[in-house]
Amino acid sequence: MVTLSFRKLVAVVATSAAIGTFGAVGIIRFAGVPIASTPAASSLAGTSGVEPVVLADPSVASDELNNIEIYRAVSPGVVNITTKAMIDSFFGAYPQQGSGSGAIIDIEGQRVVLTNFHVVQDVLAAGGSQSSIEVSLADKTTYPARVIGVDPDHDLAVLRLEAPVDRLRTVPLGSSTGLKVGQKVLAIGNPFGLDSTLTTGVISALERPLRSPSGEQIAGVIQTDAAINPGNSGGPLLNSRGEMIGINTAIAGASGGNVGIGFAVPVDIAKRIVPDLLTNGRVARAFLGIAYRPVDRRVIRALGLDASAVGLLVTGVEPGSPAARAGVRGLQQSSGSYVVGDIVVSIDGRPVREQDDLSFVLNQKRPGDRITVEIVRAGRPARLQVTLAEAPSRRRA
Questions:
Q1: What is the CATH number of domain 3-21+285-390?
Q2: Hey, is 339 helix, strand or coil?
Q3: Rounded mean pLDDT of the chain?
Q4: Which of 373, 388, 151, 382 is nearest to 289 (CA)?
Q5: Which of 244, 296, 322, 335 is deepest in the core (most CB within 10 A)?
Q6: DSSP-based three-state secondary structure for 242
Q7: Alpha carbon of 321 to those of 85, 286, 302, 369: distances in Å?
Q8: CA-CA distances (angstroms) from residue 274 to 100, 133, 182, 269, 366?
């Protein structure tokens, strides 16, 4: 049993809330584009009038022909999103207008617009009758839209478009599983408000981490050199079969412009969470019920732990939570001293070392799922079975 004094306790607990780094602060920029004032300072058939395109086999078609066919087939399903919001500031209220992209998709028989949360974030924050969202189709017709669900943690949002269903061409959904670096990709969107723009490139890297607007890490992000610029946010990243494999989200560049490094949220994430957004307007998060901090050199010194110790030190367990019911132990007071809590080493065999590791695991789970939590308690390994619950609003673990 390891005990520690009050002074050591303060050193350990002081940073036991959610801990994470933002990565390339000031370099990664979301690809939405504010365009107005600040104060003084799965089917290719559809819309009538648009001839469906049958894609040639990309393995035999020329690259040029493949580009042309994908653009003709998919661009009618890519929309321009314009937001208007009244922003309150120190200088008073002022109007702000923004622009982004989106893709019409068919989920469970419903045709909706999939885009980024940050494209509509200002409208949601401002609210009120002076805020609005308008969506322009490829044929230049414009319709009002409303947000029906958002997931800030993955930077995704779903809009309901007040337009006749027979005018809505859809973008077919592919899969982001099994992608390869070097694979051809295409992006369609509205960079700088220039609608229906096609750019091409390749997958530059896979499994990139990216911070969402909520500060959570989006795991498994696709990196591409296909030109993505402000206004491309929410548009589809496509494979050579014209299927959406990602949602264009962010760019890297100190100036905020394209430098050949763009990022897209994998479409498999969207396919998993959009049904929840349609039904509940939000995603039901899995919840463990612990407060913790990573085991680092400072913790090892303060607690006298073995130098090889790794994991998340449990500093508190919420009463009645899944962790409490499973017997997870946090810091406890005993005879004027404090007994060190459990150290979580892995969940379902996946090592957890940082907050992002735990967030990644929980984001793959749903309330009611049963997981195996491997811990170290008083220097001895143990395994606990935990049945996850639904997270209270904005809880992370």
A1: 2.30.42.10
A2: strand
A3: 83
A4: 388
A5: 244
A6: coil
A7: 39, 11, 28, 14
A8: 19, 20, 28, 9, 14
Tokens of 388: 């996850």
Q: How far apart are CA 117 and CA 125, in angstroms?
A: 11
Residue ranges for the chain with pLDDT beneath 50: 1-4, 6, 9-10, 13, 15-26, 35-50
In whole angstroms, what is the distance from residue 116 CA to residue 155 CA? 5
**Residue (of 12, 22, 21, 23) closest to 291 by Cα position:** 12
pLDDT of 253 reads: 67
Cα 383 to Cα 128, 181, 271, 344, 350, distances in angstroms: 51, 38, 32, 10, 13
**In angstroms, rounded to a whole number, what is the distance separating the alpha carbons of residues 346 and 275?**
29
Tokens at residue 252, please? 């890297």
User: Which residues, 6 or more positions from 380, have their beta carbon under 8 angstroms from its beta carbon?
Assistant: none
- For residues 188 and 195, what is the distance between their CA atoms, to the nearest angstrom? 9
**172 and 243 Cβ atoms separated by less than 8 Å:** yes
**Per-residue pLDDT tens digits for 80-96:** 999 988 877 777 777 78
Q: In residues, how long is the chain?
A: 397
Alpha-carbon distance of 227 to 62, in angstroms, equals 21
373 contact partners, CB below 8 Å, separation of at least 6 = 288, 323, 326, 328, 344, 346, 347, 383, 384, 385, 386
Q: Three-state SS for 92?
A: strand
CA separation for the pair 30, 230 (Å, rounded): 8
Asked if 203 contacts 182 with a C-beta cutoff of 8 angstroms, the reply is: yes
Question: How many secondary structure helices (H) and strands (E) does the chain include?
Answer: 7, 25
- Residue 82: per-residue pLDDT: 93
Q: What is 246-297 written as a DSSP string?
A: EEEEEEE-TTSS-SS-EEEEEHHHHHHHHHHHHHHSS---EE--EEEEE--H
Q: Which residues are catalytic?
A: 118, 155, 233
- CATH class of the 31-280 domain in this structure: mainly beta
d(CA 229, CA 260): 10
Structure tokens at 344: 């979580």
Q: Residue 216: its pLDDT value, please?
A: 85
Domain residue limits, the chain? 3-21+285-390, 31-280
DSSP class per residue in 323-357: HHHHT----EEETTEEE---EEEEETTEE--SHHH
| 328 Cα distance to chain centroid | 29
- How far is residue 296's CA from residue 312's CA, in Å, rounded to a whole number? 9
